[in-house]
TrEMBL record:
Transmembrane region(s): 18-41, 88-114
Keywords per UniProt: DNA-binding, Membrane, Transmembrane, Transmembrane helix
Residues annotated as domain OmpR/PhoB-type: 123-225
Species assigned in the record: Antarcticimicrobium sediminis
GO biological process: phosphorelay signal transduction system; regulation of DNA-templated transcription
Positions of the DNA-binding region: 123-225
Source organism superkingdom: Bacteria
Highest classification ranks of the organism: Bacteria, Pseudomonadati, Pseudomonadota, Alphaproteobacteria, Rhodobacterales
Protein name (record): Helix-turn-helix domain-containing protein
């Protein structure tokens, strides 16, 4: 199997550009929306200006009329304070919305990059640096992982490893023949396929088992690793 190297920076480059463009677009849209919203709000001093104009232009002499203007002036001040608090609330909400949208965009890009990374790993296959088969311990050491196998699974894996060292692909019948010591013509293809299934079940980890033991259509089974990493003791 050819040595396939996958650089982690490959999916990051387009992802980084998407993040930068997306963040810029989000910030620009929210800034424009905030400016338009704030500009369309009424002037906080508009009410007070009208009251002041009414006081200047009107000839008010009675105490009741003056009291009414004082009440109107107090209402204008309260309106101005309320409008100022509205502006602050709108500003905080826009900042919060910007932060949430930027975070969502970053997480989506990271998730997409992770999915691409996993797809590349699945297509390339598992990268095995060492495969040590210990028949005495019924254990296989794959990189930094160890798998305790049954005797039957160990026999199947040993047969596949020896075939890989000889650059051979074995059919199910041939695997059964080597393990049982019989002629391949007397063995059933399904028996070897059953041994492969039990080996995968014993390995447990689906990605490891499916990528380590390859099924080549109309040919048979083989270990999808470089033969120079295989050791048998």
């Amino acid at each position: 199997m050819p040595d396939v190297s996958i650089s982690g920076s490959e999916p990051r480059r387009p992802g980084a550009r998407i993040v930068v463009v997306g963040i810029a677009a989000i910030v620009a849209i929210l800034i424009v929306a905030g400016v338009v919203l704030l500009l369309t709000l009424p002037d906080a001093n508009a009410f007070n200006a009208r009251v002041e104009r009414l006081f200047v232009e009107s000839d008010l002499t009675s105490g009741t009329e003056i009291k009414l203007l004082e009440i109107l002036a107090q209402s204008g001040t309260a309106f101005a304070d309320t409008l100022a608090s509205y502006r602050m609330v709108i500003f905080v909400l826009l900042v919060f919305a910007t932060a949430m949208m930027v975070a969502a965009l970053v997480f989506l890009v990271l998730l997409a990059g992770l999915n691409r990374r996993m797809a590349q790993v699945e297509r390339a296959g598992i990268q095995v640096n060492s495969l040590l088969i210990s028949r005495e311990e019924n254990t296989v050491y794959l990189n930094n992982m160890d798998f305790k196998l049954t005797a039957a699974a160990m026999e199947t894996l040993s047969v596949l490893a020896e075939a890989r060292l000889d650059d051979e692909v074995l059919s199910g019948a041939e695997i059964e023949a080597v393990v049982s010591g019989r002629d391949s013509s007397d063995c059933d293809e399904a028996a070897g396929a059953t041994r492969i299934k039990r080996l995968r079940d014993t390995l447990g980890n689906q990605m490891v088992s499916e990528l380590l033991v390859k099924n080549i259509a109309r040919r048979g089974y083989m270990l999808a690793i470089e033969k120079d990493v295989i050791r048998m003791v």
